[in-house]
Amino acid sequence: MQALFATLLCISFLLPSTALAQNEVVLDVHAIYKARVTAVADQQTITLPGTQTTAQVQTLTAQLLEGPHKGTEVVFENDYTQLALGDKFYLRHITNDLDQTSFYSVADPDRLPVLAILLALFIFLIFIFGGIQGVRGLASLCGSILLIFYLLLPGIYDGYSPILVSIGVASLIIVVGSYITHGFNKTTSAAVLGMLGTVCITGVAAYVAMDAANLSGFTSDESVYLNFDTGGNISMVGLLFGGIMIGLLGVLYDMAIGQAVAVEELFAAGSLTPAEVYRRAIRIGREHIGALVNTLAIAYVGAALPLLLLLQSSDNSMLFILNKEVFATEIVRILIGSIGLILAVPITTAIAAFVLVGKPRGAHAHKH
């Protein structure tokens, strides 16, 4: 009797566990298909339950344009981006594995045609107004994108140090992009050396600032999802560092090349000593700093407009909000980028004045 009771007790404990295990392994089947709207009905404005926020809802009839059920039509309610008759979009199809019921929703409108037109216009304008230099700049951009997608992202995803990978890829982007766009000459080499020196110094400053501010790198839903997706094998702090370094390259490149060319032109314009060239080039650099620092800050502010609106509508104190990691991270990003731009001027100018000293008058090795 005691044995039977023990057996029944064990079964009673195992049954919930077994059911739970079965519930855990049963997953909904997700699929994305391209579809086209064939009918729109019942467009109305509703108030979301428990809030005062309104939303637009419409009933869509859509025809699947691909997948195993291509050609069939489905009807569902859409409370996401409102679509019109004939619009193409990506349809999310979720199938419950237990009872095989289906749920449809709009994943995203089809934005690829617009992106293709903008890309074609961009390339056309480069060919028309940029000439050979514009084409070389486009080739440099393609090379930078390839380095990011085939070196930076796989390196970080495979578990290598995001800090080391980011500095290495940033250095490659600087070297490859500069020489492809401006050719192999002393002016380009001076700019490259200035950028590499600035990246190293700025990298140290970024690392120290992030550590002192106790930034974790978890400032968005994407970072949280990535952490779960990779089992916590990627350092979010290192990833934040990499984002700061890569984001700095665009304006840093502009600053360094501009300073190196300024030094080249000053040497070519007359018989000036390296010290005189340095002083005059620094004067040019100060004007450049004022413009680019403002550009960098405004660019970051523009990208963070939702955060600023949240700041505006919050009841908490300003200091508390600025102390929150999501705001502190953006502030560190802006300040580190600005520090890098400021340091690029004296570093690149000094290197260019040393490398280009004694260059014959009128010898323009750099193509403008």
Please summarize what this structure is.
The chain is built from 10 helices and 5 strands. With 368 residues, it is an alpha+beta fold.
Distinctive features:
disordered C terminus; 64% helix; OB fold (Dihydrolipoamide Acetyltransferase, E2P); 368 residues; single chain; Multidrug efflux transporter AcrB transmembrane fold; disordered N terminus; 2 domains; 5-stranded antiparallel β-sheet
Model description:
The chain has 10 helices and 5 strands. A hairpin with an 8-residue loop joins β2 and β3. The protein is an alpha+beta fold and 368 residues long. The longest helix has 46 residues. A 5-stranded antiparallel beta sheet has the order 3-2-1-4-5, with no helix packed on it. α6 runs parallel beside α10 and α7 runs antiparallel to α10. Helix content is 64%, strand content 14%. It starts with a helix and ends in a 13-residue tail after the last helix.
Produce the secondary structure layout.
Blueprint: H1 2-25, E1 29-47, E2 54-64, E3 73-78, E4 88-95, E5 102-109, H2 112-157, H3 162-182, H4 186-212, H5 221-229, H6 236-269, H7 274-303, H8 305-313, H9 318-323, H10 325-355
Antiparallel strand pairs: 1-2, 1-4, 2-3, 4-5
Helix pairs in contact: 2-3, 3-4, 3-6, 4-6, 4-10, 6-7, 6-10, 7-10
Q: So how many helices? A: 10
N-to-C SSE string, H for helix and E for strand: HEEEEEHHHHHHHHH
Helix content: 55-70%
Using DSSP, what is the number of strands?
A: 5
Do you know the CATH topology of the largest domain? Multidrug efflux transporter AcrB transmembrane fold
Q: Give the CA-based shape.
A: elongated
Radius of gyration: 29 Å
Text of the CATH class of the largest domain? Mainly Alpha
CATH architecture of the largest domain: Up-down Bundle
Mean pLDDT over the residues: 82
Q: Strand fraction band?
A: 5-15%
Total tally of structural domains: 2
Largest sheet descriptor = 5 strands, antiparallel
Unreliable residue runs: 1-23, 361-368
Gap from first CA to last CA: 97 Å
**Spatial strand arrangement across the major sheet:** 3-2-1-4-5
Structural class: alpha+beta
